[in-house]
Amino acid sequence: MIFGDFFFQKKWSIRSALFWAEKVLKNFQSSRLESEVLLAAVLEVDRVFLKKNVDDFLSVAQQKKFRKFIRRRAHGEPVAYILGEKNWANLSLGVSPAVLIPRDETEVLAETIWKSPRSFSPEKILDVGTGSGNLAIFLAKKFPDAFVTALDFSPAALQIAKKNAERNSVCVNFLVSDFLQKIDDGDFFDLIVANLPYVPTKISISREVRREPKTAIFSGSDGLDHLRKFRSKLSRVQFRELWLEFLPTQVSEIKKIFAPSKIDFFPDASGQIFFARITP
C-alpha cells in the first residue's frame, strides 16, 4: 500500500511527504535525514527550508520525482547514486555505480596529507586508483602549484573523474593504467597516494555497499592483494612520501609489506589506525 497511489494526492505538503517517506524507510537507521536530503534535492532547496516551510505544497512533478527517489532508496540504492553526486571535503563530486562513493575516513586521510608538516612543497603528485578523482582533485586544490597525475584501470571511472576535475576547476592528468603501468621507470613524485581496495573477501558488506563496484572494495582473503602487487611495482619509481589507507587489523601486515621503509601511522576520527605515511 505504501508504494501504491494511496498517498499520491494533488496537494501533498512537505510535512506529509516526509511522513510518507519515513514510513517507507522505517527500517533505515537515518530515515528522517535521508528523506530530508532527498526531498531537498527534489525541491532544490536546503534542509533548513524544509523545516521552516513544512506546510508548503509539492507540485505533481515533484511528488512523482520524490516517490521515485524514495522507492530507489527503499531498495537499497545509496543516496549518493540516487542524487548522482556526493559532497566530500567541500568538493562537489559526481558519482555513479562505476565508482566507489568517497568515504568520510578518506576525507580524514586527505586532510592528514595536506596538513602534515614537511620540509618541501609538493611539485609532483601521483594518485593510484583514483576512482571518482576525489583525492587527486583535493590535492590539486590544496597544492595548486603541483602537477597531479591520477591513475585508474577503469575508463568509466576516469570519465567521471575528469568531469569532477572540470566541475571543481582543477587540472589533473588522468591516465588509464593498471597500477603504475603508464608511469615511466625512474619517474619521481613528491607525494604518492594509493587508496586501493583493502576489504577481505570474507567480510560481509551491507546492501548499499553491494551496489558499489566490487573491484574497488575487495582485495583477496586478507584484503591486501592490491597493496602487495602495488609494492612489487613500487621500485620502478622514486618518491618522498607514500600515503595508504587500510583497516586497523592490517597494521602488522602493512609493516611487513613495506619493510624496511620508515612507516608512520595515523588515526581516523574514531582514533583507530587507518592511514600510513611511508618514506624510503
Task: Describe this protein with a few key phrases.
280 residues, alpha/beta, Helicase, Ruva Protein, domain 3, Rossmann fold, 2 domains, seven-stranded mixed β-sheet, 10 helices, disordered N terminus
CATH homologous superfamily of the largest domain - what is it? Answer: Vaccinia Virus protein VP39
SSE run: EHHHEHHEEHEHEHEEHEHEE
- What structural class results from the helix and strand content? alpha/beta
Helix content: 25-40%
For the residues shown, what is the average pLDDT? Answer: 95
Describe it.
There is one protein chain. With 280 residues, this protein is α/β, with parallel strands linked by helices. It has two domains: 12-75, Orthogonal Bundle (Helicase, Ruva Protein, domain 3); 89-279, Rossmann fold (3-Layer(aba) Sandwich), CATH 3.40.50. It is 36% helix and 20% strand. Helix 8 (155-167) links the parallel strand 6 (147-152) and strand 7 (173-176). Helix 1 packs across helix 2, helix 2 (31-43) runs antiparallel to helix 4 (60-74) and helix 6 packs parallel to helix 7 (134-142). Mean pLDDT is 95; it is low at 1-6.
